Each structure stands twice: as structure tokens, then as C-alpha cells.
Amino acid sequence: MGYECFDISVTDKVAHLKLIRPEKHNSMIPSFWRDLPEIVDSLSSEGAVRALVISAEGKHFCSGMDISVFTGGNLDAPTDGGPDKADSKSGFRSRRNERFRSTAMKLQDTFSCLEQARMPVLCAIQGACVGGGIDMVSAADMRYADESTFFSIAEINIGMTADVGTLQRMPKLVAEGLVRELAFTGRRWSAEEAMAAGFVNKVFPDHESLVSGVLEVATEIAAKSPMAVWGTKRAMNFARDHSVADGLEFIANWNAAMFDTDDMAEAFTAQMEKRPGDYPDLHPLSEGI
Q: Angle at CA 202, nearest 5°, toward 200 and 206?
């Protein structure tokens, strides 16, 4: 199936999802928001993919929300008059505001699918990663950049508060005071600064080595037990949002229910025989549930 914003390929259990609108700096048009969760949820449900790499063609990784989303009325802005007219119609303002709220939450769900996926998600970022781009990569498991990369929480520059995940996820990844500075000023944040702060795992010299390097990391992950990798992702996401005590209880319960002794036996055998482990895929999830 062809997508307007994406190209997807799978090699050796690693999926590579490319943003393919370089002429528009990979801005996020309406089809982006529809197709991304469909692709990620499908890969997660099928169970055969063990790591997902997201990269982008062109000079910039992502310039954020495309202007067409604003000008096309897709954010439910008033379209039949200004504030005075809206105020004069009983119930219009509250209904319009509820549409805006519902739309924002739907956009949020688009990136939550990256957290909920059963496989790790790695982002290979070059050039600009601004606005919605940061919302997206903040929901990934790991972020890598090349030397051209810069980030910007750019919503403040258009008189808006970021509302699709950056303000909620970034303070769990780097110091809150730094996130506040970036969100209040909208300034550019270099790849080197982002790596020093722990937001980026590694900076590569150029785009080619970036994508190659991230695919190499993904391939290494894909060689591990997918049950163990999924459990690790679930445990770390849960621990991020709960107390240490709750996190310890969660992983005890998870391993009591999900620990696969066959995978552990295969891991030890493979090490002794000096070969890669041979692990079964995750079970496909039932359709319609």
C-alpha cells in the first residue's frame, strides 16, 4: 500500500519508515496523522518486526505541522465569522472548543502509538526537527542526530502552547528547567547540546552515517529475545510514570506472567555455541480487539 508521507520497508526483522516529502521539509499534512498510527499499530500487531527506525529524506527531518492544517480548517478554527459572531450564537463557542480539544487529543494519540508499540522505536534525525517533529521524537525510545540537526519547540513563536506531547514527555528525558527555557523562548537547540543533555543518544557526522548507524543499532536489538525487549520497554515506560515501588511491583508481576524460560535457554545455548540466538516472533494480536 502506498502512502503520501511515508515509505515502509522491512529487512531482517527491522522496519524502516521514511518520511518522503523532502520538498515540503516533511511537514505534517492531514494524511500524516491518519497513516502513522495505522502503520505503527499494524507492525506492532503483526509481531514480526522487532525494531522500528524512523528517518526522513531531504535536508530536514520534520518542519512540524503543515500550514495547510491551519488554513484548511483542520484544527477546527472558527470559519463562519470572528469572535463577536461566535459569541452571539448560543452554544457555538463551547462546541467549537470541544472540537478543538478532541482534535488535539486525536493528534496526541498519533504519537502515543510509538510508546505503545511492542517494539522499540529509534529516530534518525537531520536538519530541522521543530514543533510537531519534537512531539514525535519525544515519544520514541531513542533519538540519534547528525551534525546538521537542530530542535525547536517552535509553537511559542506563533503564539501557541505546544499540545501534542513535547511538554509532557521532554521533562521526563532532560532537565525540566531546560525544557522550560526551550518552550518559553522557542530557540534553536543544537544536536551537540541535545546529546549533552541526554535527549540524543549519539551525533553522527552526516546523514548517510546517521541512518546506517541507527539501522545497525536496530539490527542489534532485533537479534535479542523480542519478549525480553518488549518487557524492558513496558517496564521502563511504567517506571517513568510511577513510583519506584510501583515500578518494582510491575516488573515482578510482568516476569511472573510473561517470562519465557525457552528464550533464556536459547540465549545461553547461543552464547555457548557462539551464534546468534534464534527466538520466535511475538504472537500476532487478534484483529478486531
A: 110
